Amino acid sequence: MRNGLILIAGLLLAAGQAAAQCSDELAWQTAGAWSHGEDTLANDRALPRSARAAALRKSDEVVELLKRAIPDPKGVQANVSRSRGVQYSDEGPLKYGVTALFLGYFCVGQTAGNQDVRGKILLGGETATWIYIKFNDLSQLISPLGDEFRVADGGVMFSLPRRAGDFKGHARHAWESSRGVRWEAILVKAKDMRLTRDVSREEFLRTREQIERDQIATLLKSAEGRAASSRAGIDKSVKSYEQRLANLVALREGMTPAERQEPAIVRNTHAGNRDHMTFAAKGERGDRLYVLNDAFFDKSLPRHAIQFAIILLRWQPQNPPKVEVMRQFRENFDIEALRAMLGRS
Length: 345
Fold this sequence. Notes:
The protein is α+β, with helices and mostly antiparallel strands. It has 2 domains: 22-195 and 297-340, no CATH class; 201-292, no CATH class. 33% of the residues lie in helices and 23% in strands. The protein has helices spanning 2-21, 24-27, 49-69, 201-223, 232-253, 257-260, 320-332, 335-340, and strands at residues 34-36, 76-84, 96-107, 121-123, 130-135, 143-144, 158-159, 163-167, 170-176, 182-189, 196-198, 265-267, 278-279, 287-292, 308-315. Strands 1, 2, 3, 4, 5, 8, 9, 10 and 15 form a 9-stranded mixed sheet that branches. Strands 6, 7, 11, 12, 13 and 14 form a 6-stranded antiparallel sheet that branches. Strand 9 and strand 10 (182-189) form a beta hairpin.
């Protein structure tokens, strides 16, 4: 009996020691390291060999800049890969870059269902902490209005997160997404020319007018050959679109020339209903609309040349090691070395 009590006491003591030895604070002190993940850039055999080789070389330079900025990760495991952006045509600057993710270490509590891992420090399989360095690619920063919202030269309209000052002399945007995940975006350019230009009020209205005309044309085509009895619904819709078109034309024609050239700042841009898109009144919140500035791009450069870079930071402010990753990056990353890579072949 006495030996049994001693055994039970020993087990309880061991469990208590394990619980004391394992804590989140201890997990956050676990030494991490850099590793390499899937290389979608190197594996893209659709790219010409010379372009792929140049892109890989530039990506490797950025990987080294990242490792120098965060040399000894603690409480996280850092994984970096050379990545290929989504490209819808074989023309224009090549979209590629570097992606780094940071998996955190954590302590498994004594009440975990799997007794084998209780009291142990493990590496998490999910992360909300990433650093993306993207070349010639704005896709993760912009919010397009839709493919039909195009200006006369074909550029798609989009909105941007609000400007939040500068980072070492470069434009910085910041916002917060679901579950408190924070984002920052830093735009790095080789020249002072604007990468984007404002969409004017007139451009926005003329685009809206064309969308309504296209809808009317589609409806009229669908009505061809139908009996009059089956056209009633279509005719009603046509009249509705014609009224919308007339309202838009009247709004545009009622503006002064100066008002037409003002930047389009629009409410409800992503509400899914064009009728709800209205110009924001002075002092009212709205999205300023942009398109890419075609004059920014040097068409004489090879496709792999970096014409601009976007640094995207995403992290969880509740996790100290991941906050520390971002602190080290901001403090140590050589953004001028990155800038020096831009605009050359």
